[in-house]
Write a structure and sequence with these properties.
This protein has 166 residues and is of the alpha+beta class. 39% of the residues lie in helices and 24% in strands. Strands 1-2-3-4-5 form a five-stranded mixed β-sheet. Strand 2 and strand 3 form a beta hairpin. The longest helix is centred in the last third of the chain and has 17 residues. It is globular, with a radius of gyration of 18 Å.
Length: 166
């Protein structure tokens, strides 16, 4: 009943739909600006910026995992970062999420990755409990940092200004 497979360009509409559903679940429905063209460019042409698995139940897409490789300077090996994991609400409780995570863990082991990591919202207790049950450990000492939008553009302008001044 469950099939996990690498995404293909024909899956892009479903992937974008899952991204929008996930944003709604995470209480940020207006935060998605991604287009089908973005997904095609970044996931299916070189250089690939991400990889994606599609979860199908009875040949119907019901979820996805979008991930990319990072690098551990301390371990001297790559790692996998899971950007998004989503299973449609009606399909939850069937082991689909666990199957996706175990498939990604197998990919990480096969590719000699040092780690497999992701983020979870602090209010999402069902997911936190699910991840703990699978053996994941929440990193409490490390805090995610982000710079985006206008702040990112302003920081980039400082670099250009400083370089020109030299």
């Amino acid at each position: 009943m469950l099939t996990l497979r690498p995404a293909t360009p024909s899956d892009i509409p479903a992937i974008l739909g899952f991204i929008r559903e996930l944003a709604l679940y995470e209480r940020e429905p207006d935060a998605v600006f991604t287009t089908e063209a973005d997904l095609l460019r970044d996931g299916f042409t070189e250089p690939r910026r991400f990889h994606c698995l599609i979860a199908e139940w009875d040949a119907t897409p019901v979820g996805f995992a979008l991930y990319f490789y990072n690098y551990s300077t301390w371990e001297g090996r790559p790692g996998i970062y899971l950007e998004d994991l989503y299973v449609q609400p009606a399909q939850r409780g069937k082991g689909i999420g666990k199957s996706i995570l175990t498939q990604l863990a197998a990919i990480a082991v096969e590719e000699d990755c040092a780690r497999f990591e992701w983020s979870v919202l602090d209010w999402n207790q069902p997911s936190i409990d699910f991840y703990h049950a699978m053996g994941a450990v929440m990193k409490s000492e490390w805090r995610g940092m982000r710079i985006d939008g206008e702040a990112l553009r302003n920081l980039a302008k400082q670099y250009v200004t400083e370089e020109v001044a030299k």
